[in-house]
């Protein structure tokens, strides 16, 4: 890693609506277009086709290694293989707020890579942005810890409460990582809110 580049970790967690199943939450994460539409700054996106991807490989920087928290999930799968499956790639254009326009311009074009980990291990997302910024996130559906403020289950046969947990790593210049983290904090929580809203609406239907 270059001497002026650093990596910082982030974690966000949201309780999913009661009655949500592990399968239904993972199915929602598998809807990449809906996931992208949840981004609060997203202006447009397009799927990167196989032919486009072959051309882009020549100019795509290698980026940092896959984070350890993703490797551990891969090794823990039934195959025990730490090799990532082939990702689904999208080119995403985000609007930039006025306070950051002097640094990034009015729009930022990033490349998103979506990888579904085996055995229901969750969704791994890598975002490659200009200026060498790389954001890695592992989205998992976990059984919630029962805290003092949680309501008890109505019966022994009821489904457990679930949390949507996002573990992330932001790699960027030391001069930019704080700014990027601030944007990630705001954007991720809004994405969580919109994902939960979709599950709530489906429960009503």
UniProtKB/TrEMBL annotation:
Q: Where is this region: Disordered?
A: 144-163
Pinpoint the DUF7053 domain residues.
6-200
PANTHER family the UniProt entry points to: DUF3074 DOMAIN-CONTAINING PROTEIN, NACHT AND WD40 DOMAIN PROTEIN
What is this protein identified as?
DUF7053 domain-containing protein
């Amino acid at each position: 890693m270059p001497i002026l580049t650093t990596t910082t970790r982030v974690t966000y967690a949201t309780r999913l609506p009661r009655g949500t199943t592990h399968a239904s939450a993972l199915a929602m994460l598998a809807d990449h277009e809906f996931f992208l539409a949840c981004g609060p700054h997203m202006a447009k996106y397009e799927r990167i086709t196989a032919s486009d991807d072959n051309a882009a490989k020549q100019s795509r920087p290698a980026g940092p290694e896959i984070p350890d928290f993703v490797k551990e999930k891969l090794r823990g799968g039934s195959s025990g293989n730490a090799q990532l499956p082939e990702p689904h790639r999208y080119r995403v254009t985000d609007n930039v707020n006025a306070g950051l326009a002097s640094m990034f311009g009015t729009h930022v074009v990033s490349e998103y890579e979506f990888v579904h980990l085996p055995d229901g291990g969750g969704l791994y997302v890598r975002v490659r942005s200009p200026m060498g910024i790389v954001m890695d996130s592992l989205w998992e559906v976990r059984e919630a810890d029962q805290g003092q403020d949680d309501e008890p289950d109505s019966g022994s046969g009821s489904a457990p409460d679930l949390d949507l947990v996002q573990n992330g790593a932001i790699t960027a210049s030391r001069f930019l990582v704080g700014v990027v983290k601030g944007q990630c904090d705001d954007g991720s929580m809004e994405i969580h809110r919109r994902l939960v809203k979709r599950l709530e609406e489906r429960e009503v239907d």
